[in-house]
Amino acid sequence: TKTYDYLIVGAGLFGSVFAHEAKQRGKKCLIIDKRSHAGGNVYCENVEGINVHKYGAHIFHTNDKHIWEYVNSFVEFNRYTNSPVAVYKDELYNLPFNMNTFYQLWKVRTPEEAKAKIQSQIDQLNIKEPANLEEQALSLVGTDIYEKLIKGYTEKQWGRPATELPAFIIKRLPVRFTYDNNYFNDKYQGIPIGGYNKLTEALTEGVEIKLNVDFFKNREEWESQADTVVFTGNIDQYYNYQFGQLQYRSLNFEHQTLETDNYQGNAVVNYNEREVPYTRVIEHKHFEFGTQPKTVITKEYPQEWTAEKEPYYPINDTRNNDIYKNYKDLADQESKVIFGGRLAEYKYYDMHQIIGSALKKVKDVFQD
Ligand code: FAD
């Protein structure tokens, strides 16, 4: 018999939730991760007493009461509400697009005036069938919002002019005719008190974890140790790229410690001009109402992805989705390998969705 029931490749949220649930059911698990720490992309590094979101700002939000209660059973959450502000040249705007934004743009004060302003700009453009992302956005929100708050940010994110991006990337652009700067519409939102590591540590309590271990460096050896593999890494790599490589967008994070207790007064400030090379500046302490004497900020630069860089956002165009489908067909035939998580499913998932999908997988596997 094998040493473990499950070998879990990847100590991210998917692997951690699966490990917790399997352990609850009396199963023996080993988690391996190629990084020097557990937690996957929600991992935070402590700098000057501040939890620094090393792989990008993470804000937990969900409409699902069950998932909210599930995460709160491991760690308490604070009342952080995401209310980003956007800088465009020397102007500052509230996000998401709401009555505060419209007042800042046009000095309009009533929903009726704001709606009329947006509609008149849309009518003037007279776009019948949007041929690209620019026309799509313009036909949804008009010229001012598009030029100041969408165009530059989107072009930096994708590394291409908006006129060369497909219209389908933007399906809707939520506009809100109330004075409400809460970015998310979900019922529940917050940050774990003490940081995300508290959540992933509580999930994996009592589970063996080996760090700095790449599954592919010694694949047969790892596979031989467990009855079943739960794989949360890149699915194309699992199958030796036999149908080709799946593409991603990547990010470069530039972290800085500053000798001030408050740099920008908000956790998230977007930079919307094309000319500013980063898209956002994150000031981490504000996620937890920190009162430390110093502060840590992170500039986020979107970049092209190559094999040495972190794969952040899947590019779900036709080419990549077709390639993924080939891998998925192979995965569906496996009886001793479970695939899950954002890399194995080649899909952007928020944290609550990853937890939901891990719990669903657990239900299927253990039939309870
Ligand atoms: P991961 O966390 O990536 O875990 C996979 C793990 O597998 C990694 O630790 C990796 O090192 C390991 N691994 C891979 N290959 C191997 C191998 N060969 N051998 C060993 N180990 C391996 N969600 C929200 O809800 N709110 C947000 O505000 C939010 N912001 C985000 C911002 C950014 C920039 C990004 C990219 C994502 C954001 N998310 C957010 C989504 C969130 O990060 C994911 O939902 C979640 O982290 C996915 O968990 P996972 O376990 O699938 O993947």
From TrEMBL:
| Swiss-Prot/TrEMBL cofactor(s) | FAD
What keywords appear on the UniProt entry? FAD, Flavoprotein, Isomerase
Identify the EC number(s): 5.4.99.9
Q: Which residues are in the UDP-galactopyranose mutase C-terminal domain?
A: 148-348
Q: What is one term from the GO cellular component aspect held by the record? A: cytosol
GO MF terms here are: flavin adenine dinucleotide binding; UDP-galactopyranose mutase activity
Q: Indicate yes or no for the key word Isomerase.
A: yes
Q: One Pfam match, by short name?
A: NAD_binding_8
**InterPro entries linked to this entry:** UDP-GALP_mutase, UDP-GalPyranose_mutase_C
Q: Please indicate if the UniProt record lists Metal-binding as a keyword.
A: no
Similarity-based family? Belongs to the UDP-galactopyranose/dTDP-fucopyranose mutase family.
What is the protein named? UDP-galactopyranose mutase
Q: Give the organism the record lists.
A: Mucilaginibacter robiniae
